[in-house]
Amino acid sequence: MTSKPAVYEFNAAIVREPARSVVNGLRADDRGNPTFDGVKAEHAAYVAAMRAAGVEVTALPALEAFPDSIFVEDPALVFPEGAILLRPGAETRVRETVEIAPTLKAMFGTVVDLPTPGYADGGDVLTTPRSVMIGLSARTDRAGAEGLIASLDRLGRKGEIVQTPEGVLHFKSDCSLLDGETMLSTKRLARSGVFKDFREVLIPEGEEPAANALRVNDVVMVGADYPRTIEMLDKLGYQVVALKTTEIGKIDAGLSCMSLRWHRGQRL
Ligand code: CIR
């Protein structure tokens, strides 16, 4: 019998090519539009890093009508047991779920809908070995989070509602799993005590966006613009892959949001 893969072990992922309209992606503060070529290059490097880490990547075509559709993490959740179609909390993104549904229905035996009412973005959902944490935010409301707990239950997973810090886009904007016991977190999120059951590694002051790192198999992908975080993780013994996120950062994105990742082929 093979053992259950760790929550950061992935052999399959879905990404979506950036559309030219990505330059008009949503953002909280306008620091100027990203360039299309810049986003495309960052996305291509990310996909290459995924493949180098041992993941089979399915790339979906660009959707011009949806500027933020490159961020496939938000309209759905995927697990070895099945997928959940979510309802993103930003009006311009709600129909991204309809766009990704056929792919998920073709790739997963079980696809569950988020019940109505309520909204939930995948960026607010962190899967840990203990539970699936759902951060309340401007994109994920309580009704959506409670509905998601019911959907997770149908897949045999336990959901837990937590709070995203005020003014932070998504729960995972401020944290990521480094391994089964260790959480990388901003100080402002860790302060809430939400990770008391984990070993915490805190982001150096001023590098908060680096918290949206991504553990994939043996490597931790980290934004290349955050040298102190990279050095810290390197010293802790993690195998860091630095990836440029300067352009996608202008539309509030980081490394987790550009893929849906899971471990395929596990016998349940
Ligand atoms: C948005 O505001 O929805 C996009 N501009 C960024 C989404 C980033 N998604 C994520 O971190 N999961």
Automatic annotation (TrEMBL):
Enzyme Commission number(s) from the entry: 3.5.3.18
Which one GO biological process term can you cite for this protein? Answer: citrulline metabolic process
Residues reported in the UniProt entry to bind substrate? 26, 68, 73-74, 93, 139, 251
Q: Which domain of life is it from?
A: Bacteria
Q: Which residues form the active site?
A: 170 (proton donor), 257 (nucleophile)
Similarity comment: family membership: Belongs to the DDAH family.
Provide the protein name. Answer: Dimethylargininase
Q: Which organism is it from?
A: Aminobacter aganoensis
